[in-house]
Structure formats: C-alpha cells, structure tokens
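Action item from last week, closing it out:
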Amino acid sequence: MPILRLKEIRDMSSEERMKKLTELKTELLRLKTMVKAGGAVENPARIKELRKTIARILTIEKEQKIATKKVKKEEKKK
C-alpha cells in the first residue's frame, strides 16, 4: 500500500509537499542507516515505498512548476 496516493499529493499545496518530502527523506535516511549498521529493519519493503513516494512528490512538484510557467508564458503573449 502506498504511503501517499497521487490524489492526496496533488491536493497538497507546494509547501505541504516540501514538508512531507523532508519527513520522508529523513525516515529513509534513518532506515538506510539502520541497514548499513547491520540492524534488522522491521519492514524492508518500507524503503522501496519511501523511495517511490519521494519520486512521486518530486514528479508532481515538477509538473506543477511546468504548468505554472506555461500559463505565465501564455499570459505574456497576450
């Protein structure tokens, strides 16, 4: 089950997405550190889910920025 669904990510504001991204990156770093130290992770699949969710957030953020630039460019032409 994904940590965040696409609809939830799209409904967030840019600030909320960046805040969530920071939280997820911190958790991923913690889990990776545990693995490197030789500890057992409770749910190894969580690392994969975190990576995917981070990628989703970054992708949607990039899409939003491109869409904003297009709108501004079209307004400038008029």
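Closing note: The chain is about 80% helix and 0% strand.
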